[in-house]
Amino acid sequence: MLRLPPEYRDQSGVHAPLDFPEYRTTALRHPAQPLTLLPQRLTEITGPVLGEGRVTAADADLTLANNGEAQGQRIVVHGRVLDSDGKAIPNTLVEVWQANAGGRYRHTRDRWPAPLDPHFNGTGRVLTDTEGRYRFTTVKPGAYPWGNHHNAWRPAHIHFSLFGQAFTQRLVTQMYFPDDPMFFQDPIFNAAPEDSRARMISTFDYEATQDNWALGFRFDIVLRGRNATPFEEDDHDD
């Protein structure tokens, strides 16, 4: 029988608030009434089931799709998933989604006039190994306008989703790139407490670069504790 861990309790000063006035749509997205706890049925506590062969090496390479190669600066994004004691979390499903090099998502609601890349779908997944390590090959996403305020641009970022041993154990965050010039005006980034924002920024990793092929960035994800990576309280589509 699967035993779920104790209910995750938010640590004050780590995660973004549910309602952040500068991020205007949070007023429409967060619950307006007290939450109602529903009983967990078999589906919630026994999935996802990711046996051998369901997640392949090709799922971790976002640069190859639809019989072609994506445009843009190739990058390798890697890191470890750790618990609050620094111990590795193995066999965790890590999923990513992102805009292409021009800053556009392959999504019917994304209508801004940046070109779609026919060879970039913008999604990938991988299972962490026994040491909690993951690794993706992708292209650096572009910034894009999103209409939250005057001349609003999202910094380049990659969305991360992590699943535990059940569908009820899911955490979502965003990875940013160092020295992005758009940090100052992005309310999603700035909604996180100031002391925790650096944990959402990857570090350039020269050792992970591949000669004449790709730059390297490291992004470790800490699930809990005072060094936890800030996570979103609900699923944002930006």
Automatic annotation (TrEMBL):
Its EC number is 1.13.11.3. It comes from Rhodococcus navarretei. It comes from the Bacteria. The lineage of its organism: Bacteria, Bacillati, Actinomycetota, Actinomycetes, Mycobacteriales. Residues 77-105 form the Intradiol ring-cleavage dioxygenases domain. Pfam families: Dioxygenase_C (PF00775), PCDO_beta_N (PF12391). Keywords: Dioxygenase, Oxidoreductase. The keyword Oxidoreductase applies. GO terms for molecular function: protocatechuate 3,4-dioxygenase activity. The keyword Lipid biosynthesis does not apply. Belongs to the intradiol ring-cleavage dioxygenase family. This is Protocatechuate 3,4-dioxygenase subunit beta. Transmembrane segments: none annotated.
